[in-house]
Design goal:
about 290 residues, five-stranded mixed β-sheet, 12 helices, about 20% strand
């Protein structure tokens, strides 16, 4: 089974995708004409996609998702998208951003994005009419900068400033829908280790490692890491690690042709026997059964 890596390079090289703008950290897409022909995609960047017409259904990390007109999809980095089905009139305006640029845009408000995406798993948001009007007008202004000011010496800075404003506005809307669970979206500066843990967890290729290893990279104690994870999300650090490892296992088994041994090496398991026991314990199936399911 072949997979498609949704990265800056592959987006820019795909002839079926109309690129409005791209640099080292951002790709802005005008439309995707043959999106349904992608059988499986590994989205390596953060994505924001607004459906302007029609609808699309897909599996994202094994979960069924449906995006309709006037809805926005919030896509975290490093997710698997499969089983795409789109309507004939489907169209989308989308942007993909590296974690570095997203963090520079949101700064201390990055916790709102992380809360929505990783804690509450709100991936599809319905836009109000006034929000759609705002983003429609915003996109037209952005298009003017992309189309007519290619030689402007500060073109990149202007486009990035516009994008930062739009993403801040989106995060403001996202913050309003966060449920009141007693966990504040505006975490204190002393609690930003939790956000750094999420960023580290999502950027690592080999996620299957110990809490102690993550804590060492963050220069904090394992006990403190576990405490802040529980405080800010209700889940332990080990539960976060396990959840992300399971997503990677599902992706590599069901959407690639890699052998079990290759997957073990990619994900940091010591040997296929240990990997098989881990998969059986968490999925109730052997790796081969999960792959053929």
């Amino acid at each position: 089974m072949q997979r498609e890596e949704i990265s800056l390079q592959t987006l820019a090289e795909n002839e079926d995708i109309n690129i409005g703008y791209s640099d080292n950290d951002i790709v802005i897409i005008d439309s995707i004409q043959k999106f349904a022909e992608i059988s499986a995609a590994h989205v390596t960047m953060n994505g924001i996609a607004i459906c302007t017409n029609g609808k699309v259904q897909a599996q994202m990390n094994g979960q069924q998702m449906a995006l309709h007109k006037n809805q926005v999809a919030i896509i975290p980095q490093n997710v698997m998208v499969t089983d795409l089905m789109v309507s004939p009139d489907f169209d989308v305006k989308a942007m993909f951003l590296t974690n570095r640029i997203l963090q520079s845009f949101l700064r201390e408000k990055m916790n709102v994005w992380n809360d929505i995406v990783y804690i509450h798993h709100h991936h599809i948001i319905t836009m109000e009419d006034e929000d759609m009007l705002f983003y429609t007008n915003f996109y037209e202004m952005l298009r003017l900068c992309m189309d007519n000011r290619a030689s402007h010496p500060y073109r990149t800075e202007v486009i990035q400033s516009l994008l930062r404003s739009a993403i801040l506005g989106l995060c403001g809307s996202l913050k309003q829908i966060l449920p009141d669970t007693g966990i504040s979206a505006d975490l204190k500066a002393s609690d930003n280790h939790f956000q750094r843990f999420l960023d580290l967890l999502n950027s690592k290729e080999m996620k299957h490692t110990t809490v102690e290893s993550y804590a060492e990279e963050l220069c904090i104690s394992p006990k403190y890491l576990s405490a802040i994870c529980k405080k800010n999300s209700g889940k332990t650090a080990n539960e976060w690690i396990t959840e992300h490892v399971m997503e990677d296992i599902r992706y590599y088994l069901k959407s690639t042709d890699y052998s079990i041994k290759q997957i073990c090496n990619l994900l940091g398991f010591p040997n296929p026997s240990f990997f098989g026991k881990y998969v059986k314990s968490h999925f109730g199936l052997t790796p081969v059964q999960l792959r053929n399911q």
